[in-house]
Amino acid sequence: MIRYRVRRILKFRDTEKTAPKGARRKALKRNLSVPAKFARVFRITASAYRQAVKVEKEEGHLPQGRLQNIILDWAQKLLGVMSMDVEIKGVPPEMNRPVLFVGNHLSYVDIPLLMACVPVVFVAKEEVSKWLIIGQASKKAGTVFVKRESGKSRANAAEAIADALLKRKQSIGIFPSGTTCISEDVPWRHGAFKLAEKHQIPVQPFRIKYEPLRKLAYIEKDTFATHLLGLLRLERVKATIEFDEIRLISDHASDCDTIRAWTKELFADYQAPDEK
After folding, report:
1. What is the pLDDT of residue 199?
2. Is residue 209 in a domain?
3. In the chain, which stretches have pLDDT less than 70?
4. What's the first-to-final CA gap in the chain, in angstroms?
5. Number of structural domains the chain divides into
6. How many Å apart are CA 23 and CA 18, to the nearest integer?
7. Does the residue 273 lie in any domain?
8. Which residues in 144-159 are b (16+ Cβ under 10 Å) and which e?
9. CATH, residue 180
């Protein structure tokens, strides 16, 4: 198990003569630190972006190795701010060739989580490109943005993914559902699997789960700022990421369904809080 610990950002002292005790004291301290953590998320992201721009300016381009080091540092710091413990199951692949990572999609947290484990860039929904600071940094990291409703956008994304894998030798992370959900009931798109089958690109399945699950899942009518603030109020969170055996795709439709079923196993007993 690897653990990322958040370093203390601010030190709070009680000014009242009678300080809250026990759980009340811990809750008060935690809530007071939330704005500082929220700001730090954006400072870390802005710093990584500036570092990438600086390297690109100095060298005339952004070397892949330097970019991956910047991404790794950014991801690990971000998980630290979130007070996240990370458990890795299975063995991540040896990154001596480009790999296509495919798995379930619970939250925007999935992206730094996987990036903290393996050198990978992502395909993401177009809305992310418009997020404050995070959008600019994502573009610099090589993220491929897709309009879910646009067939033309998906076709362009397929070309960009092929270019990253085959020409730039970058490993790519894809969420075939195209959206966040807990049960993975949304059918997976076959595009990435067709690409992997055509070019015999190794596919690495992964599945992710969080504790507490609903607090980290970014679904339904959640909004980014409100969800992130709620996440940062949590004392500790746990992420489990599991890697299955790497494989070559021989039947894109069947292999897609098999991997999707494997990710769904984690949530077979899940029941939404309001249904209990």
Report:
1. 93
2. yes
3. 1-32, 132-133, 147-154, 272-276
4. 32
5. 1
6. 15
7. no
8. bbbeeeeeeebeebbe
9. 3.40.1130
Contacts of 254 (CB under 8 A, 6+ apart): none
Look at residue 30 in the predicted model and tell me its pLDDT.
55
251's torsion region: left (phi>0), alpha (psi -120 to 50) or beta?
Answer: beta
C-alpha 127/C-alpha 207 separation (Å) is 24
- DSSP string for residues in the chain: -EE--PPP-------SSS---HHHHHHHHHHHHHHHHHHHHHHHHHHHHHHHHHHHHHHSS--HHHHHHHHHHHHHHHHHHTTEEEEEES-PPP-SS--EEEE----TTHHHHHHHHS--EEEEEGGGGGSTTHHHHHHHTTPEEE-TT-HHHHHHHHHHHHIIIIIS---EEE-TTSS--SS--SPPPSHHHHHHHHHT--EEEEEEEEESHHHH---TT--HHHHHHHHHTSS-EEEEEEE---B--SSHHHHHHHHHHHHHGGGTT---GGG-
Please tell me the number of Cα atoms within 13 Å of 177 on its side-chain side: 20
Tokens of 134: 């995070």
Domain span including residue 155: 18-267
Tokens representing 90 are 């299975």
In a domain, residue 11? The reply is no
Distance separating alpha carbons of residues 260 and 243, to the nearest angstrom: 13
| pLDDT tens figures, 194-222 | 999 999 999 999 999 999 999 999 998 99
CB atoms within 10 A of CB 68: 19
Is residue 153 in some structural domain? yes
